């Protein structure tokens, strides 16, 4: 997600977004993506596909994803 897309999401909902808030949002996105990557590594996922996305989300098995 780009800065432009983040700004647009807030603008479309009538919320002003300060520069410092944008930085925090970007840092939060980075943390979440890094956590997803770690879950994949811990789950021995070599290639993340849509079928395995539940692992990146931290779901124990595919049934809990549904």
Main pleated sheet: none
Number of domains: 1
Low-pLDDT windows of residues: none
The shape is: elongated
* Helix content bin: 55-70%
How many helices in DSSP terms? 4
Order of helices and strands: HHHH
Descriptive report:
With 66 residues, this protein is mostly helical. It has one domain (3-65). 64% of the residues lie in helices and 0% in strands. The protein has helices spanning 3-12, 19-42, 53-56, 62-65. The longest helix has 24 residues, at 19-42. It is elongated and about 40 Å long. The model has no long low-confidence stretch (mean pLDDT 92).
Brief overview:
This protein is mainly α and 66 residues long. Helices cover 64% and strands 0% of the residues.
Topology:
Blueprint: H1 3-12, H2 19-42, H3 53-56, H4 62-65
Task: List the keywords.
elongated, 4 helices, mainly alpha, 66 residues
């Amino acid at each position: 997600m780009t800065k432009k897309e983040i700004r647009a999401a807030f603008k479309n909902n009538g919320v002003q977004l300060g520069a410092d808030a944008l930085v925090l949002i970007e840092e939060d996105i980075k943390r979440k993506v890094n956590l997803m990557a770690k879950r994949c590594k811990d789950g021995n996922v070599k290639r993340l596909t849509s079928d395995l996305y539940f692992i990146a989300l931290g779901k124990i098995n595919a049934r809990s994803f549904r």
